Batch of 3 targets.
Target 1
Amino acid sequence: MFRGLQVSQLSVCVDNNPIINNISLQCAPGSIHALMGPNGSGKSTLAYTLMGHPSYSVTQGAIYFQTKDLALLQPYERARNGIFLSFQQPYVLSGVTWLTFLYESYKSIVNSIITYSSFLEVVHNYCALLHIKTEVLHRVVNQGFSGGERKRFELLQVLLLKPQLVIFDEIDSGLDVDTLKLLPLVLDHLTKACPDRIILVITHYPRILELIAPEYIHVLKAGALIYSGAPTIVSLLEQGGYDAL
Ligand SMILES: Nc1ncnc2c1ncn2[C@@H]1O[C@H](COP(=O)(O)OP(=O)(O)OP(=O)(O)O)[C@@H](O)[C@H]1O
Ligand SMILES: [Mg+2]
């Protein structure tokens, strides 16, 4: 059986409104994909559905990851099975500091017996890589953080939790030019550490495609997949927009 991500004839509703209509796509282990499409086309809906957000109902089709039927797994089980969603708009977790959140996530997903001091060493190393000041780890998750700062912490979570399937929902939005340069560094780190890792990047901007060099592009329009194939399509998109497809 196929060991990557397999989305078959998937349809998704939110509050009984059909958003995704009969899409199929496949991501092989070790591949990098970009998902593009106009605003409101269903990209984040697909990301939430892969993660198992309870508001998104699968009305048709199936999703398999590493041969497991995701319909049988709760969001936390999907996380433990190596799926990670970097949010388009990361949430505030009132009353929970970054350190507590990251330590509990790390113990739950990566290493249940790591000591706090060893964890601190790991997290401090990744903070250095991402130019995050370690004092910030004592602040409440995303509370008062700027858009770009929140995205930087999404990158920190990816590095820490070492997911097998990484979904970046518009990681580039809100990032300044210097932070944007961290992206290839993080991707390089991820792919070298685990050659089987699948990376799915949702974006509007061709410039990010230059940084991540996806092997495949998928384009969603009004909930339907209208293109799945080589990245050569991007120049056409830049010139003619999505109507050119
Ligand atoms: N509760 C809801 N009821 C009805 N429609 C909804 C609901 N939630 C989301 N939608 C609609 O689903 C559609 C897809 O939204 P989604 O966030 O997946 O788009 P997107 O492709 O990620 O867009 P963007 O590029 O702007 O992030 C949108 O038209 C949105 O308004
Ligand atoms: Mg979106």
Target 2
Amino acid sequence: MSWWMEESIRMIQTNLRETDAAMDPVGLMDDLDALSANVLMVNAGGIFAFYPSELEHQYVTPFLQNDLVGTLTELAHRRGKRIIVRFDFSKAHESLFERHPEWFYRTREGRAVNYRGIMHTCVNGHYQQKVSLEIIGEVLARYPVDGIFFNMFGYQHWDYSGNHYGPCCCGNCRRRFREMYGRDLEDYDENGGTLQREYAEFCERTTREMLRNIRDFVKKDHPHVAISTYHTEGVDLVRSESNTSLKRPLPKWLYAASENVASVEGGWDDKRSSCCSINAVDLPYRFTGVSVHETEIRLYEALAQGSVLDFCIIGTFPDYPDASNLPAVRRIFRFQQENESVFNDLNPIADVLLVKPESGAARGEYSGLFKILKEKHILFEVVARERLIPRLEKEKRARVLLLPGIGRLTERERGLLERKQRAGLRIAATGGALAEDAESLRALFGIRELKRLPDAESAYFEADGEGLAGIPEGRRWIVAPGPCWAAVSEPDVVGRLRGIEAATFGPPERAYGHARSEAFDAVSIRRSGAGSGVYYGWQPGEWYGRYGWQDHKEAFAALLEDGLDGGWTLKSDAPPSVEAFLHRVGDGDLLLQCLNLSGFDGMTYHEALPIGPLTFTIGSDVLPRADKRQAAGAPGIPTGTRLYEASSLMSGKAASVRRTAEGLSVTLERLERYEAMRIREAPSE
Ligand SMILES: [Zn+2]
């Protein structure tokens, strides 16, 4: 297997400025040692070369004194570290534009983009198509590096100041677009014209094609070089970032690192996620980091999933005017290093597969469900939409498949889902999912027709009499701000959460007239073989993410679990601000991890408030094999023998474990920021 799949990775990226070309390489290695980092990511080429390139079209920074890439590669390997070199082909020095203006991005008016002497190139130009391969080839021929990374791969429609330039209308893009779609790119209309969808598809297809070309080129002679960028096509280490920006709309996304990691690790067996904790507050403020509490959460969320630890600063450590987060980075990196055998062999245990939609429009629904599952401590994995078939085909354990706002299924996907459903899978859809896919609605949910209801303020769902856990005693109605979809269903479909129709709401004298709907149930449930279909005709994720009302979370979760044999694998009295993870270590012990997110108030990341005691009950079916020996009445195991023990990887202290009718109950007396409990068979006494 490849090194990036097998090894623990603790990566530091020093995002060099060209003035850093004269840095002290030995000093950098000492800094990496002090942080327990075992992988360095550092600039090599593209905009500026940090090595003495001999290629005609690779601009070498005049600040280069020696061969920085060569020296760092040799030093890193001598100290037992890997090195991944960074390229940025999205832009090039303006001197290249003077010689080859046809390689560069153009606006519809034919203007190129020059940002501080660095100019946007184009995916379809000769520079990205061919020169990039020459530069990669030169670096791989000279230096035995372990990986290559591309910054900002693909089309650059924005500059660093946030100015938007629209589609690239260079000669190559216009020609290729006409060949692929038979239309002129100049007709692109920013206001939602038909070319928008086609242009997005054009960008995706040509980007994927270029990534495949790079992969073929690199792997032919260098199969052990990892390829990394912010895409999945042909990539080994899928990079993402947990970062902040002053211009990003609220709310802040507490699960940024968790989600970045989960959305890769759940879909591919041959790729690894590398979610970089960007220290800087924003691009214009690269020299001050986010709070240490936010940094800890990001790194622990990656650690807990057995993923790569990845941290980035600009420039080099001696110059960098903010060392405040480094002790936390050092502590978490070292913890992973000391427990490599555990974190390198984690296999998630999941009850639910949450499908991540391709469409940006459904992302709010998806991320709201992600938040609900986390807060309810329901064990789940994320499956990227394009990986639905391979993942479902090999899935043996998960009992629920969640489709948030998924537009349409292919015939093959529908067939597979029907088979899995008959075999016992519960399939749940939310947020107007499959509204345009009548066949799937009928096959999976028994819905003959789905109608989008007119948006109406002041409508409700009737919770009264549903007996839904989590809805406060005495509350009869739940607000339903819309949009909603009403199903006309087969007779064997059961409706839940009857709609309460909108009425006038002001002035108070006129606030009456709500009637129980005759035709709209917010949830439709149908049994199908050993499984079932649960269709939510509303947006539990979007509404919970946007408004934060507990009712939406609780009603969604209660109906998802309703009638599920034995309930969820992990049950806990922990508050929603505890993020829980349960993995199998190899094929034996269990690892229960808890991350305390309580310091986050929606805007600021404060210190976590200690919480405890917390109890987690783990279902019998996932316990290590001791229980089976007892259940089978194996000889030599007297009744009452302590079969399991739990101990902290942080402190080595034992935690109290107790066998209950539901499984194994583990009590954690006090949770500070993070805890990891290894649960194993007790040695026989
Ligand atoms: Zn172009």
Target 3
Amino acid sequence: MSDLKREQRKNEHVEIAMAQQDQPVSDFDKIRFVHHSIPSIDVEDVDLATHFGDFKLSSPLYINAMTGGSEWTKQINEKLARVARETGLAMAVGSTHAALRNPDMAPSFQVVREVNPDGVIFSNVGADVPVDKAVESVRMLDAQALQLHVNAPQELVMPEGNRTFSTWIENVKAIVETVDVPVIIKEVGFGMSKETLKQLYEVGVRYVDVSGRGGTNFVDIENERRDLKDMSYLSNWGQSTVESLLESTGYQNSMNILASGGVRTPLDVVKSLALGARAVGMSRPFLNQVEEHGVDGAIEYVNAFHQHMKKIMTMLDARTVDALSHADKVLSPDLLTWIEQRDLKL
Ligand SMILES: Cc1cc2nc3c(=O)[nH]c(=O)nc-3n(C[C@H](O)[C@H](O)[C@H](O)COP(=O)(O)O)c2cc1C
């Protein structure tokens, strides 16, 4: 595939993703917090900082992987990086594969480090890249972590996608053993199962972003790019972010679990944290913010988001992210069925 075609694909992903609408009801609605009338803390007591593995972040919210690899997406990365710098959010770039193939593309990713020299930045590549390329991807951005995305459904619906996956797990193992920053194995909106988490744990993975169904949908995006648009029936493939977090309960003490996928409101973030996520990523909402409201609008959005999270945590009597594990919650019959059939412990 030519570099021009790759650039075009990147732009198509952004265009189609921006046009996607979220379902009016999400799995986050299937979990409710129990309201208690008399909080023992004030809003100003709440501290949003989170710590996990090698990371101490002032906010559990992060800008998840999206762009780079074309002129347009360079501009988006530049804007997102300014938002990250002004709000203290960690930020991931989209797959750096384009820059690993063609160094002329590197500036579309490196702009993120230039704009935000002291920020926490995650680089990103696919689980199939050779180990030396994974190392290069980290070096390119002086990144604090490397996200390795696993996206089999996307590849299979993508007309020009990958059809070989049998080498992934050995490759993940080799990358985790070689790269000298934390490696986060990340889904792209299809969620994870406890079986996947076990497989990853056994090859040394200690950081995972379960990125579940419910938001940006890469079956739909790639189906849109097919001539016949004939794979829409796979649209509901995968576990939601809530289901994935339930799947992760047996691994929350041994791995750092991050959540993303369809997280849209401060309440969704707080619910993810209460289900055991150590940090929570959003992608499309940040894309829409910077493209529709500019950098200043996006900064205001993040600041308001943080204030709302503090108010929700006050209602839950949770001074810290850690304290959210004690929040009283009630799950829908749907989720209970999932827990029962999947033999999960809460
Ligand atoms: C335009 C766009 C491009 C994306 N590109 C990547 C990518 O290169 N690598 C990756 O790991 N995830 C990529 N993702 C997936 C997101 O990181 C995330 O897992 C997914 O969008 C679900 O989150 P959301 O519902 O908040 O958008 C992309 C998402 C969008 C919207």
